[in-house]
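Hi team,

As requested, here is the filled-out complex form for the pyridoxal-5'-phosphate run. I kept the field names the same as last time so the parser does not choke. Let me know if anything looks off before we queue the next batch.

— J.
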Amino acid sequence: MGIEAHRLDGIGTTIFAEMSALAVRTGSVNLGQGFPDEDGPSAMLEAAVEALRGGRNQYPPGHGTPELLDAVIAHQQRHYGLTLDRHQVVATTGATEAIAGALLGLVDPGDEVVVLEPYYDSYVAMIQMAGGVRRPVTLRAPDFRLDLDELAAAITPRTRLILLNTPHNPTGTVLTRAELEGVAAVAIEHDLIVVTDEVYEHLTFEEPHVPLATLPGMFERTLTISSAGKTFSVTGWKVGWASGPEHLVAAVEGVKNWLSYSSGAPLQPAVAVGLNEHDAFHVALAADLRAKRDVLCDGLADLGLTVHRPAGTYFVTTDVSSYGFADGRAFCAALPEKAGVVAIPSQVFYDDLDEGRHLVRWAFCKRLEVIEEGLGRLRAGLKN
Ligand SMILES: *Cc1c(COP(=O)(O)O)cnc(C)c1O
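And here is what came back:
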Protein backbone atom coordinates (compact mmCIF):
# COMPACT_ATOMS: atom_id res chain seq x y z
CA MET A 1 0.00 0.00 0.00
CA GLY A 2 1.40 3.34 -1.02
CA ILE A 3 1.03 6.52 0.94
CA GLU A 4 0.37 8.69 -2.08
CA ALA A 5 -2.59 11.00 -2.36
CA HIS A 6 -5.56 9.69 -4.32
CA ARG A 7 -4.83 12.10 -7.13
CA LEU A 8 -2.01 9.71 -8.06
CA ASP A 9 -4.20 6.59 -8.03
CA GLY A 10 -3.38 4.37 -10.96
CA ILE A 11 -0.94 6.80 -12.57
CA GLY A 12 2.28 4.89 -11.84
CA THR A 13 5.60 5.78 -13.42
CA THR A 14 5.87 6.72 -17.05
CA ILE A 15 6.25 3.85 -19.50
CA PHE A 16 9.24 5.66 -21.03
CA ALA A 17 11.28 5.51 -17.82
CA GLU A 18 10.33 1.87 -17.35
CA MET A 19 11.32 0.85 -20.88
CA SER A 20 14.53 2.94 -20.95
CA ALA A 21 15.64 1.29 -17.69
CA LEU A 22 14.86 -2.09 -19.25
CA ALA A 23 16.98 -1.16 -22.27
CA VAL A 24 19.95 -0.26 -20.05
CA ARG A 25 19.52 -3.36 -17.88
CA THR A 26 19.40 -5.74 -20.83
CA GLY A 27 21.92 -3.96 -23.07
CA SER A 28 19.18 -3.49 -25.64
CA VAL A 29 19.01 -1.03 -28.51
CA ASN A 30 16.52 1.56 -27.25
CA LEU A 31 13.94 2.25 -29.94
CA GLY A 32 11.49 3.04 -27.15
CA GLN A 33 11.85 6.47 -25.59
CA GLY A 34 11.90 9.39 -28.01
CA PHE A 35 15.16 11.10 -27.37
CA PRO A 36 17.73 11.76 -30.11
CA ASP A 37 21.29 10.51 -29.72
CA GLU A 38 22.78 13.53 -31.48
CA ASP A 39 23.09 17.10 -30.19
CA GLY A 40 21.37 20.26 -31.35
CA PRO A 41 23.08 23.22 -33.12
CA SER A 42 26.57 23.80 -31.72
CA ALA A 43 26.10 27.59 -31.59
CA MET A 44 23.19 26.99 -29.28
CA LEU A 45 25.26 24.73 -27.02
CA GLU A 46 28.02 27.38 -27.01
CA ALA A 47 25.49 30.04 -26.09
CA ALA A 48 24.47 27.94 -23.08
CA VAL A 49 28.10 27.57 -21.99
CA GLU A 50 28.63 31.29 -22.41
CA ALA A 51 25.54 32.05 -20.33
CA LEU A 52 26.73 29.68 -17.59
CA ARG A 53 30.18 31.28 -17.53
CA GLY A 54 28.68 34.74 -17.88
CA GLY A 55 26.83 34.60 -14.58
CA ARG A 56 23.31 33.85 -15.84
CA ASN A 57 22.89 31.50 -12.91
CA GLN A 58 20.26 33.10 -10.69
CA TYR A 59 16.46 33.07 -10.89
CA PRO A 60 15.36 34.48 -14.21
CA PRO A 61 11.99 36.23 -14.45
CA GLY A 62 9.21 33.72 -13.76
CA HIS A 63 7.53 34.22 -17.11
CA GLY A 64 10.81 33.82 -18.99
CA THR A 65 13.97 35.68 -19.93
CA PRO A 66 13.33 38.59 -22.33
CA GLU A 67 15.52 37.04 -25.05
CA LEU A 68 13.51 33.83 -25.07
CA LEU A 69 10.14 35.59 -25.01
CA ASP A 70 11.21 37.82 -27.91
CA ALA A 71 12.61 34.86 -29.84
CA VAL A 72 9.34 32.93 -29.47
CA ILE A 73 7.43 36.04 -30.58
CA ALA A 74 9.69 36.43 -33.64
CA HIS A 75 9.41 32.72 -34.42
CA GLN A 76 5.61 32.75 -34.36
CA GLN A 77 5.59 35.84 -36.60
CA ARG A 78 8.15 34.53 -39.10
CA HIS A 79 6.81 31.00 -39.44
CA TYR A 80 3.09 31.47 -38.95
CA GLY A 81 2.26 35.18 -39.25
CA LEU A 82 1.05 35.30 -35.63
CA THR A 83 1.64 38.57 -33.80
CA LEU A 84 2.25 38.21 -30.05
CA ASP A 85 3.42 40.48 -27.24
CA ARG A 86 5.39 39.49 -24.15
CA HIS A 87 2.22 38.96 -22.11
CA GLN A 88 1.17 36.31 -24.59
CA VAL A 89 4.12 33.98 -24.00
CA VAL A 90 5.33 32.17 -20.89
CA ALA A 91 8.49 30.06 -20.63
CA THR A 92 8.06 26.72 -18.89
CA THR A 93 10.15 23.79 -17.69
CA GLY A 94 9.61 21.84 -20.88
CA ALA A 95 6.31 21.42 -22.65
CA THR A 96 5.49 19.11 -19.75
CA GLU A 97 5.15 22.03 -17.34
CA ALA A 98 3.10 23.96 -19.88
CA ILE A 99 0.72 20.99 -20.14
CA ALA A 100 0.55 20.77 -16.34
CA GLY A 101 -0.01 24.52 -16.08
CA ALA A 102 -2.74 24.48 -18.71
CA LEU A 103 -4.67 21.62 -17.14
CA LEU A 104 -4.27 22.70 -13.51
CA GLY A 105 -4.91 26.32 -14.45
CA LEU A 106 -7.96 25.80 -16.67
CA VAL A 107 -9.74 22.61 -15.51
CA ASP A 108 -11.94 22.37 -12.42
CA PRO A 109 -12.90 19.08 -10.77
CA GLY A 110 -15.59 17.38 -12.85
CA ASP A 111 -14.76 19.30 -16.03
CA GLU A 112 -14.35 17.15 -19.11
CA VAL A 113 -11.30 17.29 -21.32
CA VAL A 114 -11.64 15.94 -24.85
CA VAL A 115 -8.33 14.40 -25.84
CA LEU A 116 -7.07 12.49 -28.86
CA GLU A 117 -6.46 8.79 -28.21
CA PRO A 118 -3.82 7.34 -28.26
CA TYR A 119 -2.67 10.12 -25.92
CA TYR A 120 0.67 11.31 -24.61
CA ASP A 121 0.85 9.89 -21.10
CA SER A 122 1.36 13.17 -19.22
CA TYR A 123 -2.10 14.32 -20.40
CA VAL A 124 -3.74 11.49 -18.49
CA ALA A 125 -1.77 12.21 -15.34
CA MET A 126 -2.44 15.93 -15.41
CA ILE A 127 -6.15 15.67 -16.29
CA GLN A 128 -6.49 13.36 -13.29
CA MET A 129 -4.46 15.60 -10.96
CA ALA A 130 -6.67 18.52 -12.00
CA GLY A 131 -9.73 16.42 -11.08
CA GLY A 132 -10.87 16.45 -14.70
CA VAL A 133 -12.50 13.66 -16.67
CA ARG A 134 -10.95 12.59 -19.96
CA ARG A 135 -13.13 12.00 -23.01
CA PRO A 136 -10.97 10.28 -25.63
CA VAL A 137 -11.57 10.63 -29.36
CA THR A 138 -9.77 7.76 -31.05
CA LEU A 139 -7.50 8.03 -34.06
CA ARG A 140 -7.92 4.59 -35.65
CA ALA A 141 -5.47 2.46 -37.63
CA PRO A 142 -4.54 2.23 -40.43
CA ASP A 143 -4.66 5.98 -41.16
CA PHE A 144 -5.15 7.43 -37.67
CA ARG A 145 -7.27 10.30 -39.05
CA LEU A 146 -9.45 12.46 -36.82
CA ASP A 147 -13.16 11.64 -37.17
CA LEU A 148 -14.87 14.99 -36.78
CA ASP A 149 -18.25 13.41 -36.06
CA GLU A 150 -16.70 11.55 -33.14
CA LEU A 151 -15.13 14.77 -31.95
CA ALA A 152 -18.48 16.57 -32.07
CA ALA A 153 -20.15 13.65 -30.27
CA ALA A 154 -17.60 13.80 -27.43
CA ILE A 155 -18.63 17.35 -26.50
CA THR A 156 -21.03 17.64 -23.56
CA PRO A 157 -22.19 20.54 -21.38
CA ARG A 158 -19.32 19.61 -19.02
CA THR A 159 -16.63 19.94 -21.69
CA ARG A 160 -14.10 22.53 -20.61
CA LEU A 161 -11.48 22.16 -23.28
CA ILE A 162 -10.14 20.17 -26.19
CA LEU A 163 -6.56 18.99 -25.78
CA LEU A 164 -5.08 18.56 -29.23
CA ASN A 165 -1.69 17.23 -30.30
CA THR A 166 -0.41 17.76 -33.84
CA PRO A 167 1.93 16.42 -35.15
CA HIS A 168 0.64 13.57 -33.02
CA ASN A 169 2.63 11.32 -30.70
CA PRO A 170 2.48 8.29 -30.97
CA THR A 171 0.75 7.90 -34.36
CA GLY A 172 2.72 10.46 -36.39
CA THR A 173 -0.52 11.91 -37.75
CA VAL A 174 -0.24 15.51 -38.88
CA LEU A 175 -3.71 17.03 -38.82
CA THR A 176 -4.72 18.55 -42.16
CA ARG A 177 -6.10 22.06 -42.54
CA ALA A 178 -9.53 20.52 -43.18
CA GLU A 179 -9.36 18.53 -39.95
CA LEU A 180 -8.22 21.61 -38.04
CA GLU A 181 -11.08 23.60 -39.56
CA GLY A 182 -13.39 20.92 -38.20
CA VAL A 183 -11.86 21.25 -34.74
CA ALA A 184 -12.19 25.02 -34.96
CA ALA A 185 -15.86 24.76 -35.93
CA VAL A 186 -16.60 22.55 -32.92
CA ALA A 187 -14.63 24.80 -30.56
CA ILE A 188 -16.35 27.93 -31.80
CA GLU A 189 -19.83 26.37 -31.79
CA HIS A 190 -19.45 25.26 -28.15
CA ASP A 191 -17.29 28.19 -27.05
CA LEU A 192 -14.43 25.93 -25.97
CA ILE A 193 -10.76 26.51 -25.28
CA VAL A 194 -8.29 24.40 -27.22
CA VAL A 195 -4.91 23.53 -25.75
CA THR A 196 -2.69 22.33 -28.56
CA ASP A 197 0.60 20.52 -28.03
CA GLU A 198 2.73 21.28 -31.08
CA VAL A 199 6.16 20.18 -29.84
CA TYR A 200 6.78 18.40 -33.20
CA GLU A 201 5.85 21.52 -35.21
CA HIS A 202 9.07 21.37 -37.24
CA LEU A 203 9.28 17.60 -37.57
CA THR A 204 6.95 16.92 -40.51
CA PHE A 205 7.85 14.89 -43.60
CA GLU A 206 5.12 15.50 -46.16
CA GLU A 207 3.12 18.66 -45.50
CA PRO A 208 4.09 21.57 -43.26
CA HIS A 209 2.45 21.78 -39.85
CA VAL A 210 -0.51 24.13 -39.53
CA PRO A 211 -0.88 25.73 -36.08
CA LEU A 212 -4.49 25.74 -34.95
CA ALA A 213 -4.05 29.31 -33.68
CA THR A 214 -3.67 30.54 -37.29
CA LEU A 215 -7.23 29.54 -38.23
CA PRO A 216 -9.91 32.25 -38.33
CA GLY A 217 -11.44 32.89 -34.92
CA MET A 218 -9.07 30.52 -33.17
CA PHE A 219 -6.24 32.64 -31.76
CA GLU A 220 -8.37 34.02 -28.94
CA ARG A 221 -9.37 30.53 -27.74
CA THR A 222 -6.15 28.58 -28.39
CA LEU A 223 -3.22 27.96 -26.07
CA THR A 224 -0.26 26.66 -28.09
CA ILE A 225 2.49 24.64 -26.43
CA SER A 226 5.95 23.96 -27.82
CA SER A 227 9.44 23.24 -26.59
CA ALA A 228 13.11 23.34 -27.50
CA GLY A 229 13.48 19.64 -26.73
CA LYS A 230 12.13 18.21 -29.99
CA THR A 231 12.79 21.28 -32.15
CA PHE A 232 16.53 21.38 -31.37
CA SER A 233 17.25 17.80 -30.27
CA VAL A 234 17.91 18.87 -26.67
CA THR A 235 15.24 16.92 -24.80
CA GLY A 236 17.22 17.15 -21.55
CA TRP A 237 17.11 20.94 -21.47
CA LYS A 238 13.45 21.11 -20.52
CA VAL A 239 12.79 24.57 -21.88
CA GLY A 240 9.30 24.99 -23.27
CA TRP A 241 6.72 27.71 -23.75
CA ALA A 242 3.03 28.36 -24.03
CA SER A 243 1.62 31.15 -26.17
CA GLY A 244 -1.80 32.57 -26.92
CA PRO A 245 -4.19 35.21 -25.61
CA GLU A 246 -3.14 36.77 -22.34
CA HIS A 247 -5.93 35.21 -20.24
CA LEU A 248 -4.92 31.67 -21.25
CA VAL A 249 -1.20 32.32 -20.83
CA ALA A 250 -1.92 33.84 -17.40
CA ALA A 251 -3.61 30.59 -16.31
CA VAL A 252 -0.44 28.66 -17.14
CA GLU A 253 1.72 31.25 -15.44
CA GLY A 254 -0.50 31.21 -12.36
CA VAL A 255 0.32 27.52 -11.92
CA LYS A 256 3.91 27.71 -13.09
CA ASN A 257 4.63 30.32 -10.40
CA TRP A 258 4.01 27.63 -7.78
CA LEU A 259 5.39 24.57 -9.55
CA SER A 260 8.85 25.75 -10.55
CA TYR A 261 8.56 29.56 -10.37
CA SER A 262 11.18 29.92 -13.09
CA SER A 263 13.08 27.72 -15.53
CA GLY A 264 16.72 27.12 -16.58
CA ALA A 265 18.36 30.59 -16.55
CA PRO A 266 21.36 29.85 -18.79
CA LEU A 267 19.38 27.66 -21.16
CA GLN A 268 16.69 30.18 -22.06
CA PRO A 269 19.01 32.64 -23.85
CA ALA A 270 20.62 29.70 -25.65
CA VAL A 271 17.24 28.50 -26.90
CA ALA A 272 16.64 32.07 -28.06
CA VAL A 273 19.81 31.79 -30.19
CA GLY A 274 18.45 28.55 -31.64
CA LEU A 275 15.07 30.09 -32.46
CA ASN A 276 16.57 33.25 -33.95
CA GLU A 277 19.42 31.79 -35.97
CA HIS A 278 18.68 28.20 -36.83
CA ASP A 279 15.72 27.94 -39.17
CA ALA A 280 18.00 25.86 -41.44
CA PHE A 281 18.36 23.35 -38.60
CA HIS A 282 14.63 22.60 -38.73
CA VAL A 283 14.82 21.78 -42.43
CA ALA A 284 17.92 19.60 -42.04
CA LEU A 285 16.51 17.80 -39.00
CA ALA A 286 13.21 17.03 -40.73
CA ALA A 287 15.04 15.70 -43.81
CA ASP A 288 17.31 13.58 -41.64
CA LEU A 289 14.38 12.16 -39.67
CA ARG A 290 12.44 11.48 -42.86
CA ALA A 291 15.30 9.34 -44.16
CA LYS A 292 15.53 7.51 -40.84
CA ARG A 293 11.78 7.01 -40.81
CA ASP A 294 12.06 5.28 -44.16
CA VAL A 295 14.91 3.03 -43.07
CA LEU A 296 13.07 1.93 -39.94
CA CYS A 297 9.67 1.58 -41.65
CA ASP A 298 11.10 -0.40 -44.57
CA GLY A 299 13.07 -2.61 -42.19
CA LEU A 300 10.07 -3.31 -39.97
CA ALA A 301 7.89 -4.02 -43.02
CA ASP A 302 10.52 -6.46 -44.33
CA LEU A 303 10.18 -8.31 -41.04
CA GLY A 304 6.51 -8.85 -41.77
CA LEU A 305 5.13 -6.25 -39.39
CA THR A 306 2.25 -4.06 -40.59
CA VAL A 307 3.73 -0.56 -40.64
CA HIS A 308 1.72 2.68 -40.33
CA ARG A 309 4.15 5.17 -41.88
CA PRO A 310 4.00 8.51 -40.03
CA ALA A 311 3.89 12.02 -41.57
CA GLY A 312 5.72 13.59 -38.62
CA THR A 313 7.29 13.15 -35.16
CA TYR A 314 9.92 10.66 -34.00
CA PHE A 315 7.70 7.57 -34.10
CA VAL A 316 6.27 4.80 -36.23
CA THR A 317 3.46 2.51 -35.11
CA THR A 318 3.30 -1.14 -36.15
CA ASP A 319 0.64 -3.76 -35.79
CA VAL A 320 2.27 -6.87 -34.29
CA SER A 321 -0.80 -9.08 -34.62
CA SER A 322 0.23 -9.86 -38.20
CA TYR A 323 3.32 -11.27 -36.55
CA GLY A 324 1.45 -13.63 -34.30
CA PHE A 325 1.31 -11.40 -31.23
CA ALA A 326 -2.17 -10.39 -30.13
CA ASP A 327 -0.73 -8.27 -27.33
CA GLY A 328 1.86 -5.52 -27.83
CA ARG A 329 2.77 -5.56 -24.16
CA ALA A 330 3.73 -9.24 -24.34
CA PHE A 331 5.64 -8.52 -27.55
CA CYS A 332 7.58 -5.63 -25.95
CA ALA A 333 8.24 -7.63 -22.77
CA ALA A 334 9.71 -10.51 -24.79
CA LEU A 335 11.65 -8.32 -27.21
CA PRO A 336 14.75 -7.48 -25.09
CA GLU A 337 15.47 -11.14 -24.47
CA LYS A 338 14.48 -12.37 -27.91
CA ALA A 339 16.23 -9.65 -29.90
CA GLY A 340 17.97 -7.11 -27.63
CA VAL A 341 15.65 -4.28 -28.68
CA VAL A 342 13.23 -2.14 -26.68
CA ALA A 343 10.00 -0.66 -28.07
CA ILE A 344 6.87 0.80 -26.46
CA PRO A 345 3.50 -0.99 -26.27
CA SER A 346 1.05 1.61 -27.58
CA GLN A 347 -1.81 0.17 -25.50
CA VAL A 348 -0.60 2.27 -22.55
CA PHE A 349 -1.82 5.30 -24.54
CA TYR A 350 -5.41 4.01 -24.87
CA ASP A 351 -8.54 3.76 -22.76
CA ASP A 352 -10.03 1.57 -25.47
CA LEU A 353 -7.72 -1.44 -25.25
CA ASP A 354 -9.25 -3.08 -28.30
CA GLU A 355 -7.94 -0.19 -30.41
CA GLY A 356 -4.41 -0.33 -29.06
CA ARG A 357 -3.69 -3.83 -27.79
CA HIS A 358 -1.80 -4.99 -30.88
CA LEU A 359 0.11 -1.76 -31.59
CA VAL A 360 3.78 -1.06 -30.85
CA ARG A 361 5.61 2.27 -31.15
CA TRP A 362 9.20 2.51 -32.40
CA ALA A 363 11.42 5.62 -32.33
CA PHE A 364 13.59 6.55 -35.32
CA CYS A 365 15.22 9.67 -33.80
CA LYS A 366 18.43 7.67 -33.45
CA ARG A 367 21.72 7.54 -35.37
CA LEU A 368 21.38 5.51 -38.55
CA GLU A 369 23.79 2.87 -37.28
CA VAL A 370 21.67 2.45 -34.15
CA ILE A 371 18.55 1.91 -36.26
CA GLU A 372 20.45 -0.54 -38.50
CA GLU A 373 21.78 -2.37 -35.45
CA GLY A 374 18.26 -2.59 -34.02
CA LEU A 375 16.90 -3.93 -37.31
CA GLY A 376 19.73 -6.46 -37.57
CA ARG A 377 18.97 -7.72 -34.08
CA LEU A 378 15.26 -7.95 -34.88
CA ARG A 379 16.00 -9.92 -38.04
CA ALA A 380 18.11 -12.37 -36.07
CA GLY A 381 15.94 -12.54 -32.95
CA LEU A 382 12.43 -12.60 -34.40
CA LYS A 383 13.15 -15.29 -36.95
CA ASN A 384 13.43 -18.01 -34.34
C1 LIG B 1 8.22 15.02 -25.71
C2 LIG B 1 6.82 15.50 -25.62
C3 LIG B 1 6.46 16.45 -24.67
C4 LIG B 1 7.39 16.91 -23.57
O1 LIG B 1 8.19 17.94 -23.93
P1 LIG B 1 9.31 18.49 -22.89
O2 LIG B 1 9.69 19.78 -23.49
O3 LIG B 1 10.39 17.47 -22.87
O4 LIG B 1 8.66 18.60 -21.56
C5 LIG B 1 5.17 16.95 -24.68
N1 LIG B 1 4.27 16.51 -25.59
C6 LIG B 1 4.57 15.56 -26.50
C7 LIG B 1 3.53 15.12 -27.45
C8 LIG B 1 5.85 15.02 -26.54
O5 LIG B 1 6.14 14.06 -27.42
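Two things worth flagging: The longest strand covers residues 159-165. The CA atoms of residues 112 and 160 lie 6 Å apart.

Thanks,
J.
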